[in-house]
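hey can u run this one w/ adenosine-5'-triphosphate bound, need the structure tokens asap thx
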Amino acid sequence: MPQAATLALKGLSKQYTVKDQSLAVLQNIDLTVNPGEFVSIVGSSGCGKSTLLRLIIGLELEHEGEILLDGTPITGTSLERGIVFQEHRLLPWLTVEQNVGLGLINAPITEAQKRRAVQEHIELVGLVGFEKALPYQLSGGMAQRVSIARALVNKPEILLLDEPFGALDALTRAHLQQELHRIWRREGITMILVTHDVEEAVFLGDKVVVMEPRPGRIRRIVPVDLPHPRDRAAYRFASVKEDVLREFGGEAPEDRLVAEEVQFPRDVRLSPNISFAL
Amino acid sequence: MIIEASLPESGRLRSAARPARRAPLRLRIAPLAPGLKRLLLSWPFPLAILALWALAAHYEWIAPQVLPAPGVVAHTFADLARSGELFDNLKISLLRVLAGFAAGCAGGLVLGVAMGLSPVFKDYVYPLFRAVSQVPVLGWLPLLMLLLGIDETLKVVLIAKAALVPIAMNTYKGLENVPAQYVEVAKVFGLTRRQLLWKVVFPAALAPIWNGIRYGLTHAWLALVVVELLASSEGLGFMIVYGRQLFQLDLVLAAVVMVGIVGYLMDKGLALIETRLLRWRRVGF
Amino acid sequence: MNALASFTLGLPARLPKALRGWVLPLLLLLLWWAAIRFSWTDSKLLVSVGQVWDRAVEQTTSGALREGLQASLWRDLVGFAIGACVGLLFGAALGFSRLLENMVGPTFHTVKQISLFAWVPLISVWFGLGDSAKVAFLSLAAFFPVALNTFEGIRSVPREFIEVAQVFNLNRRQWLTKVVLPAASPSIFTGLHLGLIYAWLATLGAEYLLVAGKGIGNTMIDGRENFWMDLVVFGMIVVGAVGFTLNWIAGVVETRLLAWRGRAVAQY
Ligand SMILES: Nc1ncnc2c1ncn2[C@@H]1O[C@H](COP(=O)(O)OP(=O)(O)OP(=O)(O)O)[C@@H](O)[C@H]1O
Ligand SMILES: [Mg+2]
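ok here u go:
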């Protein structure tokens, strides 16, 4: 079992510059995530959850405050930290198998071991039979599952998940929640899960971080002191859920509207298919 | 001949992804004056070439009949401009392009719209259109020269053909590829057929149609220069051939520069119109 | 767009789809035939289908067609190969280096505005009228679209994919071969395809303008000068067929190699 590091965010702030105007996206985030802990993050759209994950993974290096792993600041991406992006980001020219294999591309193991690991993870996300499929042949939910497999396959110490189950049906979602929980327990991976589903956050998390927008701040951290396996129907579960939901209710609704308006589209561009003739 | 391909629209470069591993340091320096920096960086290369050219001409490394000095070319250019010869020829060329392009554009739009809106019409016309467009402009030239002689009609017809094909093709494809969802939305809101066309279908197909028009103009210009080189006694292309025959390379180069300037201005003008026309598409970037 | 399929413009929709495309060409042929049959004109430019056919047979059996086509195609391919290679390297260099782009890019974008054929007289002074001048011109014709599209392809690799490469710590070579080149390949192919087309167009142009030697373009020019309409029409058909074949090959290669895009981009 890998011994994960303690992740500490201290006074973390981040701003983007849009058209010469600086836009505060995150402000003064303090958060400690212990090794092997499961932290859920909820918050309205545009409050900076994805940005927070991008900072932790090391894709955004410009910020104020500190991001420390066992006291050392992070300097960039690392195989110890994995991420499932909000959009699946499968490489469209690679098959499912090859996309998952990307997670192991530089791992110090033999090809046979790699193949086995890839196959296991494809099984894990329930995509046996689609090994040779190309991303365009998958549904949104299937693609998302491939990207979960891709992030898990090299067993990172810290795994960041950005709304990984957003595109899934209720059944698959529940199943993958169970699986994620099982992997978390078995492997001792530190997990940070961003979700819009409060029930999911409470079901999986040791604590739930509720964020508020403009600029993104931590509103409250709700501990979830419930034993596993958790029963979604139990009274105590419901009361923690209520607690989290109440934090949402306190927000002015127009905040959300504005936050959504300034949402920066980062979808992959569609190059227009045009014809050309001589 | 025709190909369909994903071509970048001109705005894409600006929004293109930056290289991956940028150092945070550079990010801070960059906003200093990126425009100025770019300007400063862009001049040394052409100036160096010009200097090399001037040196080569000065020390006669290359014979002046093969490469006259840049000063001579500039001088000839100024002379031609002053005597009006340059602009007279330019005017003739531009009028030809304009006439040919207008005809080609109108024809291309009508044909493209008809094929795009009516699958039945498309079934009848498209195969022939396709076959005709497989023969490039220059393939048509000898035939048209025999049929039409070598005066204005030839030029206008050839230029019109050059413009028509990409415009018709892109208009047709653009209309055909309008997402069915949009049309469904329009149906849900009970739009009449006219509203459907003007509020949904044409705006949705505007981008590819516009691309076709851009290519149409580029090809019209290309065709003009060829036809003037081959069969004309006026115009910029003729100036080039004339200079070449007299071995007056300064004249050739001056005319080539003018051709370049016109091409450049047309491209810039189109890009300008495009940013206006297709503004809704760029909102996000 | 099926949703608009209701527009018929009053054309007979009863005719089976597969036959509709033949109506116009057959009408044209009929018109052609009638023009000769009823001698609407006595211009010697009006040649019959039979004459064109005879000419085709004569050109084919005498080896003139093979000779001309061989000369043209050989030049076309050599010129294309040179132009495409230089274009790929140049475009890639510009795509990967911001500094180079800033220094050379503006000049490149300006020079490419010069209408292609305006170069021919200059090239003829510098390289003569023979094959080397033609090949130089064809290389130039292929160079611009290849360079431009390679550059733009590399520059517009979606940032999302670059980040994936970063998250999985791909090394420089993997970054290039697994992410950047595949992502840029559609654009690069477009460039190569355009280069092929422009090179073919330029092949004809070069043969018209630099009248020396053999080639299908020279054949057509001969036909025009001697008022041999049958030869001109035959030449046009050959030129169209070559263009079609080049397009078709490019299309097949493209659909093969870019199958991951999940839709046919080039269809012929
Ligand atoms: N590259 C960028 N440039 C400028 N602004 C950005 C950029 N990325 C994000 N933002 C802004 O930062 C804010 C937070 O974005 P972020 O994607 O982190 O939100 P989020 O909480 O993940 O939202 P959602 O739940 O909708 O995914 C938004 O207001 C967005 O407009
Ligand atoms: Mg997000």
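The radius of gyration of chain B is 24 Å. anyway lmk if its weird
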